[in-house]
Amino acid sequence: MAKKETKAERQARVIKVLEALDREYGRSYVCYLNHENPWQLLIAVILSAQCTDARVNMVTPDLFRKYDSPKKFAQADLKELEKDIHSLGFYHMKAKNIISCCQDLVEKYGGEVPRTMEELTSLAGVGRKTANVIRGNIYNEPSIVVDTHVKRISRKLGFAREEDPEKIEFELMKVLPKDHWILWNIQIITLGRSICVARNPKCCQCFLQTLCPSAQAQLSKKKEA
C-alpha cells in the first residue's frame, strides 16, 4: 500500500508541478475564445457551454458583426438568434440567456460588463465558471476556472477530490498560490488537449509523470503487464 502523502509533501509537489508547467508553457495569459472587448467574451463563454472553443470561434465573427453591441443582442429576435447560433448546440437556451443577459447589461450596467462575482452570476447564463473567465481575463482578478480539463487533471494530480466544479474551485483555491489561479486553467487546457487527453492520456510522454499519482499508477500497470 502506498504511503499517504502529508500536507507538506503535497504542497511541495504542487510547487514542483507549477514550476514544470511554467517551464513548459510559460506564464502568459491566453484566452482561447476570440474577442475584442468584455461583452464579446461574455457572450462567447455563454456560447461555449458543451461546445469547443474552436467551434465558437467559427461562429462569433459573423455573429458580432451582425450584433455589434449588447443593445443589439438585447433587442434580437429570439428565433433569428437561435438560427444564428444553431450549430453550437443547446441554441434555444443559449439564445434566451444571451438576450436576457444583454438586457440586464444595458438596463442595469449601462452596457458594461460588471466585475464582481455577485453581479456577474446574477446575469442569465452566467455561473461561477463564466464569471471567473471574465474576472480573470478582463479584470485580472485571481480566479480559478474549472472546465472539464481542470476538473479531470486536478483530480488525477490529487489536488482535488470533489466531482462538483464549484467545490473543486474551492479545493484548488486552498492548494494553489493566487499567482497561479488564472494560469492553472490556461496551462491545464494546453496539457489536456495535447498530452493528458481524456480517452488516452500519454503518461509516458508527460513531463509531469513523476509528479502525478495517476501517471505513476498507469506506468506501473504497464510494467507489470
TrEMBL record:
Its EC number is 4.2.99.18. It comes from the Bacteria. Binds 1 [4Fe-4S] cluster. Keywords: 4Fe-4S, DNA damage, DNA repair, DNA-binding, Endonuclease, Glycosidase, Hydrolase, Iron, Iron-sulfur, Lyase, Metal-binding, Nuclease. Residues 47-194 form the HhH-GPD domain. GO terms for biological process: base-excision repair, AP site formation. It is an enzyme of class 4 (lyase). [4Fe-4S] cluster binds at residues 196, 203, 206, 212. CDD domains: ENDO3c. It holds the Pfam family HHH. One of its GO terms (molecular function) is class I DNA-(apurinic or apyrimidinic site) endonuclease activity. SMART domains: ENDO3c, FES. It catalyses: 2'-deoxyribonucleotide-(2'-deoxyribose 5'-phosphate)-2'-deoxyribonucleotide-DNA = a 3'-end 2'-deoxyribonucleotide-(2,3-dehydro-2,3-deoxyribose 5'-phosphate)-DNA + a 5'-end 5'-phospho-2'-deoxyribonucleoside-DNA + H(+). Its cofactor is [4Fe-4S] cluster. DNA repair enzyme that has both DNA N-glycosylase activity and AP-lyase activity. The DNA N-glycosylase activity releases various damaged pyrimidines from DNA by cleaving the N-glycosidic bond, leaving an AP (apurinic/apyrimidinic) site. The AP-lyase activity cleaves the phosphodiester bond 3' to the AP site by a beta-elimination, leaving a 3'-terminal unsaturated sugar and a product with a terminal 5'-phosphate. This is Endonuclease III. It comes from Lacrimispora saccharolytica (strain ATCC 35040 / DSM 2544 / NRCC 2533 / WM1) (Clostridium saccharolyticum).
